[in-house]
Design brief:
By secondary structure, the protein is an alpha+beta fold. The protein is built from eleven helices and nine strands. The protein is elongated, with a radius of gyration of 30 Å. The two termini are about 55 Å apart.
Length: about 325
């Protein structure tokens, strides 16, 4: 079993028990600083060291970790002390600290964005979980680090609600944008190629079940009510029946697929160019929402009722996690 050294990476003990530079590792330290200053962040540096087969500080493997690189980048002993000879130029160390300070300032400037449900983002209210039906919310990965990539995840899963969804996968926002661009261009090609048709499905099919529950509750109360109470409950029941009729009429299924298909085709006549980067307005003109069917698979729904399934590379381990838990149902229907 490897022992943990009592001195910084890049040094060794000589036969007198004094610290001296271990040139092979000292060269790695200088390489880390130089690449960091040149623009390689700490995560990229970690993978660089792993991929180049450089042994980590313990010397037992090449499995470098982010915090190991961070520790090297802020250790002042590399510029020299009474116990440690210098292996790094002071100007190189000072420049690296300026880069670290800029990274900290960037984190502070973006910290307010993390999981703020009150803020509206391009995909807010647009994505549903295919497992539990909850909406997706936005958050930032790597909470305590510099690299904070925005991602979207199931609200139940993230907030750990009772009966939470254990199978829903996260998706990076930049990956989500790529998927949406691909779907948009796919529909564009079909429209301009004359292959795009109406779905023939009802585009509005919601039914408000709240009135059904209230009506049943009122009927149950009427079974045990006295004469005076019965009169009031009868009036309440009449009001509820009338309101339910109004709601059912307003939300009755209407086949608007032909209408929306025409609108989508008109959209691509006005915007014939392929979408290269994600743009909210043209995308939402033709798409009404999307469902995260499972990690690596999204179903996008057009305004005419048609559906487009797009695949992407999920985060590591999410497919196995979705298949493991029985709570994953794979439901995709509204």
């Amino acid at each position: 079993m490897a022992t943990i050294p009592l001195y910084p990476y890049g040094y060794k003990l000589n036969y007198r028990g004094k610290k001296e530079a271990q040139e092979e590792k000292a060269a790695v330290v200088r390489l880390i600083y130089q690449k960091y200053i040149d623009g390689m962040n700490r995560y990229s540096l970690t993978w660089y060291l792993i991929n180049h087969g450089i042994l980590r500080p313990r010397g037992d493997s090449c499995a470098w970790r982010y915090n190991m690189v961070s520790q090297i980048l802020m250790d002042e002993r590399y510029v020299g002390t009474d116990k440690y000879p210098p292996i790094l130029a002071k100007d190189l160390f000072d420049t690296a600290q300026l880069v670290r300070q800029k990274e900290k300032e960037k984190v502070i400037a973006t910290r307010h964005e993390s999981c703020n449900e009150k803020r509206k983002y391009p995909f807010s209210g647009f994505i549903r979980c295919g497992s539990c039906g909850s909406s997706y919310i936005r958050g930032l990965q790597h909470k305590n680090s510099v690299t904070r990539k925005a991602s979207w995840r199931c609200r139940n899963y993230h907030l750990k609600n009772v009966g939470k969804c254990k199978a829903s996968g996260n998706i990076y926002e930049e990956m989500l944008e790529v998927v949406c661009v691909e779907a948009y261009n796919r529909i564009r090609s079909e429209c301009l190629g004359g292959k795009f048709a109406a779905s023939g499905k009802p585009c509005v099919s919601e039914k408000n079940k709240l009135f059904d529950l209230l009506i049943q509750e009122t009927i149950d109360q009427m079974k045990v009510a006295d004469e005076i109470r019965m009169i009031k409950l009868q009036n309440d029941l009449n009001v509820l029946l009338n309101k339910r009729m109004e709601v059912e009429w307003a939300s009755a299924p209407m086949d608007l697929s032909e209408y929306h298909t025409k609108k989508i085709k008109e959209h691509f006549v006005r915007h014939p160019m392929r979408m290269s980067e994600f743009e909210v307005e043209p995308f939402t003109e033709i798409f009404i929402g999307m469902t995260a069917i499972k990690p690596g698979e999204l179903k996008l729904v057009l305004k005419n009722g048609n559906e487009v399934v797009q695949t992407y590379k999920p985060m590591k381990g999410q497919v196995e996690n979705a298949e493991k838990y029985r709570s994953y149902s794979g439901k995709t229907d509204p």
